């Protein structure tokens, strides 16, 4: 038995296209069904043709479709008549053996039996070859050579049926639709694979490209990728350089996201087959970064532009810095008396890096680490987009040594209503940016001009020792030539102390406190001399109590009297205090000239000043 080259197929076709040049006639051996849906050959013809395998019925040569550069042929669905180049006998020994059936006993208008006799020899099977593409139409057509020689073309979509030649058997031997795919022209498609070539991570899927970026491939519309895929591979300490067709970089070089037409032309892909695979290998170069040192007006004794490899270290040495020339502070007194400029000195105070910082800086060790971060300012060891050629700039900072701001004076006339007082130094001529007042510390690391502000508010002060319950106060008064609101701050200080701002009425006494001292006798028989040094200048209040007096005749001795007094004392003066004994014992102190007051009873007390000494006595009548 010969080889079987087809399966039994039973498509339900709604319509049928008649084969060109075919005549439905009993004389030709070609018969079409009553419905016109299918045809059969040599139905019940028991005169079996005894042919040889590979025997041919030739009609015309195969004329293949020609392609151009960048094109290929593919099998496409075909409609219409199929011109036969030849018939080839492929199944010479055909017996009634098949047993595959559709439902019922009728197919496409032909009746059939459902039981193979297995003994009846039938007509041999022929295979048609398409004259356009040279492909076989893979259905076995069972027929004699004379009948098959009449069929020079077939119609795509038509159906063929073959029965056992014994009418009593009539078994269905073949039933199939003609479905031929013929050659059509299409532009080539190419695949590019991306190899990381030593990368630590990242992945790029294959990209697909079409010759000349055409948008139709094998009959379907496509969206061509016109450039190479963006590199996302990464390798520690390296940056992506380019792609190459050889791993060692000796092949064709292509840039990241290079245009596909460039790849197509350099690799001459138009002469390659459809489906050509191109492998591109990532090429790497060491990552370098640059540190720029800005001396900021000074000088740096060393390289100021340092380029080093990824994650190497450079130590910043402030000893190599020479600060800029001393800054000059000029004074614009704005109508006041001129003041000579002040020439300051400066010293190094630290380093400042410009943002964004690509490297890392250790403040403790003053070391800079090159290129630790990428273009997106993400730590480089976890990111695919490595940064090369980044530039970090570090600037030396200086601090000017401080000095005391001077006081400005104004050439006021005699008119009390036209008096100006110095209101401090400002950074701008309009006096909106306050810098400081006279005696305040000021420093700068660059040349600058300070501007004097003048106020027409004339504030005067006068001591008033009777106010504040005898503790004293300061009476303030001012002259103001305009109606503008003005604010003065009031300060107070103890002698040789620091000025403190008076923020409320209570802070005047709460902040300064009081000075007190008490003096008592030590024995009954002697006066006791005690010395007290005045700590602050001011009014001091004295309270002197007389001692216990003795009896005098009918008078009974009792407590001595009390003397009070207020004296202005200066800082550093010495008080020499003598305290008498009971009953007037002891030696009295003489010479007090400031004042004396006689007391009742036997006790007496007094205070006075002689040169820089103050004497206090009690316990004796006088």
From TrEMBL:
Pfam families reported in the protein's UniProt record: Flg_new
Principal subcellular localisation of the protein: other
Subcellular location: Cell envelope
Signal peptide: 1-26
NADP listed as a keyword: no
Keyword terms, alphabetized: Signal
InterPro entries (UniProt xref): InlB-like_B-rpt, Listeria/Bacterioides_rpt_sf
Protein name, UniProt field: InlB B-repeat-containing protein
Phylogenetic classification of the source organism: Bacteria, Bacillati, Bacillota, Clostridia, Lachnospirales
């Amino acid at each position: 038995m010969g080889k079987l080259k087809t399966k039994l197929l039973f498509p339900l076709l709604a319509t049928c296209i008649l084969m060109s040049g075919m005549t439905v006639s009993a004389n030709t051996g070609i018969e079409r069904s009553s419905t016109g849906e299918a045809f059969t050959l040599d139905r019940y013809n028991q005169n079996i043709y005894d042919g040889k395998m590979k025997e041919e019925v030739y009609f015309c040569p195969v004329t293949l479709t020609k392609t151009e550069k960048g094109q290929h042929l593919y099998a496409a669905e075909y409609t219409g008549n199929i011109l036969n180049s030849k018939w080839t006998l492929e199944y010479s020994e055909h017996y009634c053996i098949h047993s595959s059936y559709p439902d019922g006993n009728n197919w496409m208008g032909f009746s059939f039996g459902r039981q193979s006799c297995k003994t009846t020899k039938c007509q041999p099977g022929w295979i048609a070859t398409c004259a356009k593409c040279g492909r076989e139409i893979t259905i076995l057509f069972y027929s004699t050579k004379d009948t098959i020689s009449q069929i020079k073309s077939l119609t795509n979509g038509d159906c063929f049926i073959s029965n056992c030649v014994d009418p009593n058997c009539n078994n269905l031997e073949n039933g199939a639709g003609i479905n031929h795919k013929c050659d059509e022209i299409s532009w080539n498609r190419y695949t590019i694979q991306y190899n990381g070539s030593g990368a630590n991570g990242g992945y790029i899927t294959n990209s697909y490209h079409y010759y000349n970026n055409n948008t139709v491939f094998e009959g379907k519309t496509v969206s061509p990728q016109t450039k190479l895929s963006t590199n996302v591979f990464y390798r520690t300490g390296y940056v992506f350089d380019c792609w190459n067709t050889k791993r060692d970089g000796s092949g064709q070089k292509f840039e990241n996201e290079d245009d596909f037409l460039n790849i197509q032309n350099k690799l001459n892909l138009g002469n390659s087959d459809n489906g050509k695979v191109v492998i591109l290998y990532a090429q790497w170069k060491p990552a370098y970064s640059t540190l720029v040192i800005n001396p900021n007006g000074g000088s740096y004794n060393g390289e100021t532009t340092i380029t080093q490899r990824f994650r190497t270290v450079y130590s910043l040495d402030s000893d190599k810095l020479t600060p800029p020339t001393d800054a000059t502070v000029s004074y614009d007194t704005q109508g006041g008396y001129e003041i000579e400029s002040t020439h300051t000195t400066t010293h190094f105070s630290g380093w400042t890096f410009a943002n964004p910082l690509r490297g890392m800086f250790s403040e403790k060790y003053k070391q800079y680490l090159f290129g630790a971060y990428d273009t997106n300012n993400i730590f480089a060891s976890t990111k695919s987009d490595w940064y090369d050629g980044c530039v970090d700039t570090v600037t030396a900072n200086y601090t000017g040594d401080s000095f005391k701001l001077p006081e400005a004076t104004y050439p006021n006339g005699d008119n009390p209503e036209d008096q100006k007082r110095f209101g401090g130094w400002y950074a701008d001529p309009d006096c909106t940016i306050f810098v400081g007042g006279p005696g305040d510390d000021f420093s700068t690391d660059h040349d600058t001009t300070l501007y004097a502000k003048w106020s027409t508010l004339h504030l005067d002060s006068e001591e008033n020792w009777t106010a504040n319950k005898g503790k004293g106060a300061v009476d303030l008064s001012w002259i103001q030539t305009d109606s503008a609101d003005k604010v003065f701050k009031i300060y107070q200080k103890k002698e040789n102390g620091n000025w403190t701002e008076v923020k409320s009425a209570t802070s005047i006494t709460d902040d300064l406190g009081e000075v007190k001292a008490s003096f008592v006798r030590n024995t009954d028989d002697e006066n006791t001399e005690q010395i007290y040094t005045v700590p602050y200048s001011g009014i001091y209040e004295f309270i002197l109590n007389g001692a216990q007096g003795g009896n005098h005749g009918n008078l009974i001795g009792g407590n001595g009297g009390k003397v009070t007094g207020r004296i202005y004392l200066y800082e550093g003066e010495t008080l020499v205090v003598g305290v008498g004994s009971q009953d007037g014992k002891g030696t009295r102190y003489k010479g007090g000239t400031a004042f004396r007051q006689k007391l009742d009873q036997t006790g007496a007390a007094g205070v006075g000043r002689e040169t820089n000494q103050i004497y206090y006595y009690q316990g004796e009548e006088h």
